[in-house]
Amino acid sequence: MCVVIAILEVKNLSKTFRASRLGGKAHRAVENVSFAIPAGQTYGLMGESGCGKSTIGRMIVRLIPATKGQVFFRGADLLAIKQRAFRPYRRRIQMLFQHPSTSLNPRMTVLDSLREPFLLHDLPGRDCMDDRIREHIESFGLQSELLERRTSQVSGGQIQRIVLARIMLLEPEFIVLDEPTSMLDVSVQAQMMFLLQELQERSGVSYLLISHDLDLIRRCSHRIGIMKEGRLVEQNETEALFGAPKQAYTQELIYNFECMKN
Amino acid sequence: MDIRVEDLYVRFATLSGDIEAVNHVDLTFSQDQITGLIGESGSGKSVLGLTIMGLLQSNATVEGRIFLGERELISLSEKDLCAIRGREIALVAQNPATSLNPSQKVGRQIEEVFRLAGEGKVDSTRRTHELLERMGFSDSERVMHSYPFELSGGMCQRILTAIAVAAHPRWIIADEPTKGLDAVVRNQVYDTFCMVKEQYNVSLIVITHDLLLARKFCDQIVVLYSGRVLEINTAQAIFNNPRHPYTQGLIASLPHLGMRPMPGFSAAFTDQPSGCVFHPRCPYIDEDCRKIEPKLIPVEEGSVRCHRYS
Ligand SMILES: Nc1ncnc2c1ncn2[C@@H]1O[C@H](COP(=O)(O)OP(=O)(O)O)[C@@H](O)[C@H]1O
Ligand code: SF4
Ligand SMILES: [Mg+2]
Questions:
Q1: Residue B167 lies in a domain
Q2: Could you report the predicted ipTM of this complex, rounded to two decimals?
Q3: Residues B127-175: pLDDT tens digits?
Q4: Which end of chain B has fewer surrounding CB within 10 Å, N or C?
Q5: Mind telling me how many Å the CA of B257 is from chain A's nearest CA?
Q6: Which ligand 2 atom is the nearest neighbour of the CA of B283?
Q7: Whole-number Å distance between alpha carbons of A32 and A221
Q8: CATH numbers and ranges of domains, chain A
Q9: How many domains does chain B have?
C-alpha cells in the first residue's frame, strides 16, 4: 500500500451497454475496474481499441452513467452526487478528446471559443477576459494572431493546444486525456505531451492518460494499468510493470511493440 | 521499372492564395527498393502520391516530369493513364473506410478486379478466396460476405491492399497504411506488406508518418517538409545518423527515444519563410540560412538540404 493521497479513485466500476431494440446482446464494456491516481501524477490506461478505456473516462466525467461502482474525487463519490451538486465538479474535472475538432465549434473564432469558459463557468475577471486570454495562450506557444481565425482554419496540432488552453483557463485539478495525440504526428505529439507535463509540474494537475501506444504511456505515466476486454488485467508503477510484467497479455503487448523497433 | 520524378512542382489555387504543395522535387523510386516518404501531415506526401497516379483535384497545376520506365506520365491522356492506374501503379488510399464501396460486399469488390482482367465468375471467386487467405484472413468465406462497415479498420486496410494486389501491378503506393491502428493490428499490416513484397514481386512506395514502420520496412527514406525534400538516405542512415536538423528533431520526438519536442510549427504554405524553410525552427541557424535556400547536397549514400553540409 502506498501512503500517497489519491485525488481520484475508481472502485469496482462497471458498464454494461444494454442490448439495443434492434437486436444484439448486452455488452459488458467495463467490468469491475479499480485504480487510484495520486495527486499530481499521471495514470496511464493502456489497451487495444475497443477494450473499454474511453468508456471509463466518460464515466468519470459523467458523460455516461456507470452501471455499477464508485468514483471518488477528493473523497466525494462523484457518481452518487445529484446533478445540481455536481456543477462545481464540471469545472474541476475536465476531458480532452482524441478528435480536437469535435470540441470546438468550427464557425466560431478562436477568441470566442476561449471566451466561452468565462461565460459558462462564471470565472472571475470577465471584464478583462480578452487580455487574460491573450496572455494565457502565449504560454501555450500560440500566437495571438490565431485568435481572430475560425477554428476550422487552424491546424490539428494547434487546435489541440487551443482546446487544452481553454481547459486550463478553468484551472482543473484532474483531466482525462483520451488518446490526446493519436491523430497527431510524432513531432506534434512530443510538443503536446511536453506541454502537458509542464502544466502538471506547474499546477499539480493530475491526468488519466488513455492510449493504445505503449511507448507513449511508458514515457508519460507514473503508473500504468493494462486493460483487456473490459477488465484491468495488471497495474503497477511504470518501470516495475515493464521490468517484470506478470500477465501473459502484458508480455504480449510489450512484445508487439518491441517487434516494430527491431 | 523505376519511377523517376524530375523537377516537380504542384500548385493549388486556394481561397487564401496559391500554394506550392510540392516544391522542386527530384527523386528516383528504384524498383528494387522500398521507399518510405515521411514527414508531418501537410508536408505534401499524399499530393506527391496522387500526382504520380494522375489523381489530383482540378484546382492543381503540375509542372515537371514523372517517368515510369520510358513513359512520361504527366503528359499522358486520361485514357492512357487509366490503363496504367491500378494495372501498373496501384494506390492503397489513406482512408480505408472511405475508399471501399460501403454498399458492396468486399468479396465482390475484389472479384471485380479479376473479372476486369478477363477471368470467369468461378475463377474470380476462387482467386479471391486464395488472395484473402494469403492476406492473413483465416475465415475468407465470412470476410467475402461482409460489408466494409462490418470489418475493423485494420481489416479494411488489408482488403484495400488485396484489391491493389489482385491486378498484379508493378508498383503499389500505400498512403498511411498504419494510421490510427494499434500495435497488434499494425504488425499485421506490416506482415501483409512483407508478404505482398515477397510473393507479388511488386515495388512499393510507403507514405507514412509512422517512423518505426518506415525504419523496419523501407530501404530508402525520403524526408519531406513543406513540399520539399530535406533528406534522402538509407533507412539505416536516416535513423542512426540523421543529418538534417529536422530529421534529427523528428527522431528525437519518438517517445522511446526521449520525446524531446522541436520548437515551433511548420509554416503555412501561404506564408513560407525565406531561405531555408526550416530556419525558424532550427537550432543551428546562421546568417545564410535566412537568405539562401540550400540545395540538396550529396552525402554518403544520400543527400541533405542544409548549408551545414556544403
Ligand atoms: N485540392 C487541394 N486544394 C488545395 N490545397 C490542397 C489540395 N490538396 C492538398 N492540398 C494542400 O497541400 C498540402 C499538402 O497536403 P498533403 O499532401 O495531403 O500532405 P500529407 O499527405 O503530407 O499530409 C496541404 O497544405 C494541403 O492542405
Ligand atoms: S540550412 Fe540552416 S536553418 Fe536550414 S536546416 Fe540547415 S542549419 Fe538549419
Ligand atoms: Mg496524407
A1: yes
A2: 0.89
A3: 999 999 988 898 999 999 999 999 888 889 889 999 999 999 999 999 9
A4: C
A5: 9
A6: 8
A7: 22
A8: 6-102+172-261 (3.40.50.300)
A9: 1
